[in-house]
Amino acid sequence: IEQIALSKAQNVFLRNPEAIVLGCDTVVCYGKEVLGKPKDKDDAYRMLKMLSGKTHRVISAVALLQKGHCDVFHDVSEVTFYDLDDDLISYYLSLDEQVLMEYREKENCL
């Protein structure tokens, strides 16, 4: 995960060598399964249902690049979902993409 964050930062830094660049990536793990981005709404529903009422791990990696300096690290958080009923999951998945993007940005800052 750190390598992905570093690759994202390097991609921007190569085009902006005077900038301070931050690259990030996050992955969710539940049991032995690494959850990627859902393929579609059915897959998203499956993932949310699986995580409902349970604790999972979120691994977030950060790469900070500036001229003469590179720092890469990660942190692991445990997140516990409330029980999510079918109506709540369906409502969440019905939201338009812009609302979801704004929610995900806020969620990643918590």
Distance between the termini: 20 Å
Low-confidence stretches: none
Total strands:
4
Helix count equals: 4
> What's the helical proportion of residues?
40-55%
Alpha-beta content class: alpha+beta
Sheet having the most strands: 4 strands, antiparallel
Mean pLDDT: 90
User: Strand share of the residues?
Assistant: 25-35%
Strand line-up of the largest beta sheet: 2-1-3-4
Overall 3D geometry?
Answer: elongated
Round the Cα radius of gyration to an integer and report it.
Answer: 16 Å
Topology as a string of helices (H) and strands (E): HEEHEEHH
Task: Spell out the key features of this protein.
110 residues, alpha+beta, four-stranded antiparallel β-sheet, 34% strand
Explain the overall architecture.
- The model has no long low-confidence stretch (mean pLDDT 90).
- By secondary structure, the chain is of the alpha+beta class.
- Helix content is 43%, strand content 34%.
- The chain is elongated.
Summarize the structure.
About 45% of the residues lie in helices and about 35% in strands. The chain has about 110 residues and is of the alpha+beta class.
SSE layout:
Layout: H1 2-15, E1 21-30, E2 33-35, H2 41-51, E3 55-66, E4 69-80, H3 86-94, H4 97-109
Antiparallel strand pairs: 1-2, 1-3, 3-4
